[in-house]
Design goal:
Elements: H1 9-17, H2 19-28, H3 32-37, H4 44-55, H5 59-62, H6 68-86, E1 89-91, E2 106-108, H7 119-129, H8 134-144
Antiparallel strand pairs: 1-2
Helix pairs in contact: 2-6, 4-6, 6-7, 6-8
Length: 145
């Protein structure tokens, strides 16, 4: 299972600072034809979702500890795509252990309005929903609000 960052702001900052490298590694592992289309556009989320559906039969398979690096790469790409299209920012809530995304990186609106989104949760939910356009639909729905 993917471990939350708990109370460590330093771990979160390190995770953020390595995100570009993480995403670059994820993209480099794809075929050149797929690499070309991983441009952080809403449509690129369908490509990522197809990778998820081809790689994982369900959410449980994604949460296996052996998959933590691969799932982190997917979640980083999904998160950056949401962040760039919504102009949101990354955050980490460690003030309330009852918070549903406690210790897990989330995206929040810069003006603090609306609900946060958790790219890790969205990524694993895509394996469960098995739609092929789940991630893009969520992004479009937020963009409409």
């Amino acid at each position: 299972m993917i471990e939350p960052l708990h109370n460590s702001r330093d771990e979160f900052e390190l995770w953020l600072s390595s995100m570009d490298d993480t995403i670059e590694l994820f993209i480099s592992r794809q075929s050149s034809h797929i690499q070309r289309d991983l441009d952080f556009s809403p449509m690129s989320l369908d490509i990522v979702e197809s990778i998820i559906l081809d790689s994982y039969s369900n959410t449980t398979a994604m949460l296996d500890l052996s998959q933590s690096y691969a799932v982190n790469e997917l979640a980083c790409y999904v998160g950056e795509t949401f962040r760039k299209n919504l102009n949101w920012k990354w955050d980490l809530r460690t003030d309330d252990p009852a918070f549903v995304f406690y210790g897990i990186p989330i995206l929040v609106n810069r003006d603090s309005s609306g609900d946060p989104e958790c790219p890790l949760s969205l990524t694993t939910a895509a394996a469960d929903r098995r739609k092929g356009h789940y991630l893009r639909t969520i992004l479009h729905n937020i963009m409409k609000d």
